[in-house]
Specification:
seven-stranded mixed beta sheet, alpha/beta, 12 helices, globular, single chain, binds ligand T4K, Aspartate Aminotransferase, domain 1
């Protein structure tokens, strides 16, 4: 293939839309520190995500890091989480001086195995931090029951679940807080950006202080805080992209359907299923899992030779990251290890040409029988 096909491609609004909306910034010169576009995007996203309260941030990682910080857990407390995620999830726990306790996942949807959470709870456990990985929603009801039984907080990493709903309710409805990523690679982007969706006004205030140095007036600094605000250029990108979100998700759905049809009869792979009951998906990722050992890397390399850049999201497990060597539990993660060694995420974005999807599937069929 002449053209490089990458795992994803940033969705940009029409150039004129963006230029028109940023033009007034040259009059106002107000380009950050909670400008009018920041405010407007917060309002629109609150509505779109059905979130009671929402605070925009500079990226998804800081949304998560500050959401955890806002909970004010004692140093050294334990947080039960998944190792099958982007490294950000675990870094956010560790950077808050908390200990990640890794729980295995389910192989059918790659989310945390809720039946294995209770056995990991100790006197030090303060929270559960699951990830709606690839937009597959965790078993939120079961997790809520466990959290309530042991008085734990639930912090959802919803970086992959933008706009998804369960039984008509926005996914931010579940847990104490949910964070979203609006990175350039996501279904909805603000170039870089993120948000924390919350249920309480008090938490919203804390988040505000954490993302703006604790500044509440020219001479009033009420608490210690970082700088994690979203700027106006990003907020405007968000406002523009929000106009096209339904269209983009529908295009993604169509691409996924082609992948699913083309790969339907292969018994050597398991394809991502979009069939959780009551869920509306955003079709952010298309992962497949090879059942035969050592095939994933071979296919990954063969596709690269053809200029097709699939990705091994998520290898290595975060529990196996070099920087954590020997520090945290990384045993009894059998399913997570299987997923890390055998899952390949295929290119998927609204503009992806259907004929390229068919070509990718053809190559996968060829390479998988080598
Ligand atoms: N929690 C979870 C579960 C997450 O997946 C993430 C982020 C976070 C938390 C943290 O959220 P942020 O702080 O990032 O908002 C990418 C993204 O950088 C990262 O946001 C994402 N997860 C992760 C799964 O994927 P890389 O290292 O794979 O990115 P990179 O630069 O290799 O880009 C991947 C492909 O995207 C490229 O091959 C082409 C395309 N691309 C990339 C960029 C940067 C574009 O089309 N345009 C671009 O500007 O991490």
């Amino acid at each position: 293939m002449d053209e490089q096909i990458l795992v994803t491609k940033t969705s940009l609004p029409p150039y004129e839309d963006y230029i028109k909306k940023i033009r007034p910034l040259w009059d106002s010169h107000w380009i950050t520190n909670m400008g009018m576009n920041h405010k407007l995007l917060e309002e629109k996203l609150c509505a779109y995500l059905q979130a009671p309260y929402l605070s925009l941030t500079v990226n998804g990682h800081m949304a998560l890091e500050l959401a955890i910080q806002a909970m004010d857990f004692p140093e050294g407390s334990e947080v039960i989480t998944t190792p099958f995620t982007f490294i950000s999830t675990t870094h956010a726990i560790v950077r808050n001086r908390l200990t990640p306790v890794f729980c295995d996942i389910k192989l059918d949807d790659y989310t945390i195995d809720e039946t294995k959470i209770e056995e990991l709870i100790t006197k030090k456990t303060v929270a559960i931090l699951p990830v709606h990985v690839y937009g597959n929603l965790c078993n939120v009801e079961a997790i809520a029951r466990i959290a309530s039984k042991y008085n734990l907080k639930v912090i959802y990493d919803s970086a992959h679940a933008f706009g998804e709903t369960l039984n008509g309710k926005g996914i931010a409805h579940y847990g104490d807080v949910s964070i979203f990523s609006f990175h350039a690679t996501k279904v909805f982007n603000t170039i870089e950006g993120g948000a924390v969706a919350l249920h309480s006004k008090e938490m919203l205030e804390r988040l505000y202080n954490l993302k703006n140095f604790g500044i509440r007036g020219e001479e009033l600094i009420v608490s210690v805080g970082a700088n994690a605000k979203m700027n106006e250029f990003s907020a405007i990108m968000g406002l523009c992209n929000l106009e096209y979100i339904s269209e983009n998700i529908e295009l993604r759905r169509q691409k996924v359907q082609i992948y699913a049809e083309e790969l339907a009869n292969m018994d050597s792979i398991v394809v991502q299923k979009y069939n959780q009951e009551g869920v509306t998906y955003n079709y952010g990722y298309f992962p497949i899992r090879f059942l035969k050992k050592d095939i994933r890397d071979l296919v990954y390399n063969k596709l690269r030779e053809q200029n097709i850049y699939s990705r091994k999201y998520f290898f290595p497990l975060t529990s196996d990251a070099n920087c954590f060597e020997g520090k945290y539990n990384n045993l009894q993660l059998t399913n997570a290890k299987t997923a890390a060694n055998n899952v390949l995420v295929l290119p998927l974005y609204p503009e992806l040409n259907n004929s390229i999807i068919i070509k990718i599937c053809k190559l996968i069929k060829e390479f998988s029988i080598l």
